[in-house]
Inverse folding.
């Protein structure tokens, strides 16, 4: 028996960073979870999305799949950011509506907010401008799902919801230097500097931008609470509501990694949006979510996990 209100749950991106945690928590609650890979079904192909629904027949979908990464990937692949994210969302939501899936949870992003949004970001400011250029393609692609969701609710009464997540971090994150986000990128540089005895590391930008960093397990708690308790297509922010600068986070990570060298900033590289954090009272009011995990402890957990992975890989080699 399950204590989750849906029995057959499709989690797209279920082998990815966020999705893998969603799958585990749903399984722990007794749900039957389906998390096919991109090798099984190409979500950018309409016919394969139909095949997926025919094979699985889900009553709930949590759409975690996304093509995303750090500033470098966003700048280098804006067309892919747009194409993959728009097509996956479009075909999944369209088929879910046709098949009368009971609920669709769309995982959106803080990157959808306009470049000059006053901080903290409030949901009512979402449509007041265009996103910051380095992540505009990704942010706008995810934003189109909100329009689709609201249109389907208005015309068909289809129950889909939209969550706008802050910057995620935690164990199992992507540490690839070409595609990773800021926290895993800094962790990797600090750990490698300690291993090689380097006296300095170089990070992108100025270090002045501020961000809202949400532990991945807090994000999953919010997703499942919203799946159970929230039934509106109006988007809801999911974050900590607390801002920290990139420079501060870099110093904290360096300390936890044991790196005592110099942190240099490459001002020729982009900062991205200067200030980005969320006003989060709506998530608490609508479905009772508050972030619980302290950043310092979450970073320690993430650093320890990454070091353990490096040790395991070195041992196998």
């Amino acid at each position: 028996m399950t204590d989750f209100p849906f029995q057959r749950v499709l989690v797209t991106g279920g082998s990815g960073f966020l999705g893998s945690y969603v799958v585990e928590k749903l399984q722990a609650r007794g749900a039957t979870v389906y998390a096919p890979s991109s090798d099984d079904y190409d979500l950018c192909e309409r016919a394969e999305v139909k095949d997926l629904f025919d094979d699985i027949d889900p009553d709930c979908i949590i759409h975690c799949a996304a093509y995303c990464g750090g500033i470098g990937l966003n700048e280098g692949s804006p067309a892919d950011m747009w194409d993959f994210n728009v097509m996956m969302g479009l075909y999944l939501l369209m088929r879910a509506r046709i098949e009368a899936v009971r609920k669709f949870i769309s995982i959106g992003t803080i990157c959808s907010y306009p470049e000059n949004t006053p901080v903290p970001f409030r949901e009512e400011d979402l449509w007041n401008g265009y996103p910051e250029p380095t992540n505009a393609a990704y942010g706008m692609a995810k934003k189109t799902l909100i329009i689709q969701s609201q249109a389907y609710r208005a015309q068909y009464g289809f129950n889909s919801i939209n969550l706008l997540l802050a910057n995620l971090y935690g164990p199992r994150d992507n540490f690839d230097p070409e595609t990773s986000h800021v926290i895993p990128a800094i962790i990797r540089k600090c750990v490698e500097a300690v291993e090689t005895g380097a006296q300095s590391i170089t990070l992108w930008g100025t270090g002045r931008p501020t961000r809202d960093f949400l532990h991945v397990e807090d994000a999953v708690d919010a997703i499942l609470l919203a799946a159970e308790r929230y039934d509106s297509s109006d988007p809801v922010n999911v974050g900590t509501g607390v801002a920290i600068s990139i420079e501060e986070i870099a110093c904290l990570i360096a300390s936890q990694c044991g790196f005592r060298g110099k942190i240099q900033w490459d001002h020729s590289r982009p900062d991205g949006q200067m200030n980005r954090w969320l006003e989060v009272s709506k998530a608490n009011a609508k479905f009772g979510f508050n972030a619980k995990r302290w950043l310092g402890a979450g970073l320690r957990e993430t650093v320890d996990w990454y070091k353990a992975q490096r040790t395991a890989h070195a041992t196998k080699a």
